[in-house]
Amino acid sequence: MLSGRRKFIVIGVALGLVAALAVTFSVASGKEATPTTGAKLAQAADQPEAPRRGCTACHPQGGIDANGKYSLLNEAQERVKARDETAEHPTVAPDGTALTFQTTADTCLQCHKPGTGDRAGKGAFAPLALRDIVHPAHMFSTAFKEHYGGNCFTCHNVAGDGTWQLLPLKVDVNEKGVPDDEKLPIPGALPASETW
Predict the structure, then answer these.
(1) Helices (DSSP H) in 85-183: which residue ranges?
(2) In sequence order, which residues have a C-beta less than 8 Å from that of residue 20 and are 6 or more positions away?
(3) Is residue 177 part of a domain?
(4) Residue 43, SS3 per DSSP
């Protein structure tokens, strides 16, 4: 039986040999060796992007192309279609505001704020409250957590009285995610009690 240290060395040598053989066979077959998805994710996790805070920091108003890709409305339209190909996301908020690729979370909350009374556990007008959509969508997203370094403070802030806030708009931050002290209180921050 090998001791702990010797076992560790033997296993390390064996893994090194397997890796060397894999590269040798890859080169001999004429195929270029490429990193696995796991290796790419590990590399991304080692070099996350600078901190982003606020919904529109990641879901820019207008999106990133002519189709509004990654805008909040585009994300909502895609999720509705994923649930039911024949369904359409509404195009007008309850207050009459037209939903566009410029729409921000405060408009989304007209329908997706938590319902009360017979709507408890649902959105005020929508089938789901915003919290029941975005928390699982982000926390189960490898890209959000590992590439973007996303966490609770990507979307939220703690107010001076200790209560949570939702950050619907992009927040100007330093390399640590700390808000610009000349732009406080954070513009557009909403009390989480009205959004959860």
Answers:
(1) 105-112, 130-139, 142, 152-155
(2) none
(3) yes
(4) helix
Tens of pLDDT, residues 91-143? 999 999 999 999 999 999 999 999 999 999 999 999 999 999 999 999 999 99
196 pLDDT tier (thresholds 50, 70, 90): low
List the domain range (segments joined by +) for residue 64.
55-194
- Give how many domains the chain has, as a whole number: 1
Helices vs. strands in the chain: H and E counts, helices first: 8, 3
Burial of 159 (0-12, 13-18, 19+ CB in 10 A): middle
Q: 134: buried, middle or exposed (CB in 10 Å: 19+, 13-18, 0-12)?
A: buried
Q: What is the DSSP string of 147-170?
A: IS---HHHHEEE-TTS-EEE--S-
CA distances from 194 to 32, 116, 165, 166 (A): 54, 11, 9, 9
Model confidence pLDDT, tens digit, residues 30-68: 444 444 555 555 555 556 688 999 999 999 999 999 999
pTM for this entry:
0.73
Q: Is residue 92 part of a domain?
A: yes
The reply to whether 127 falls in a domain is yes
In a domain, 132, yes or no: yes
In the three-class reduction of DSSP (H, G, I as helix; E, B as strand; rest coil), residue 173 is classed as: strand
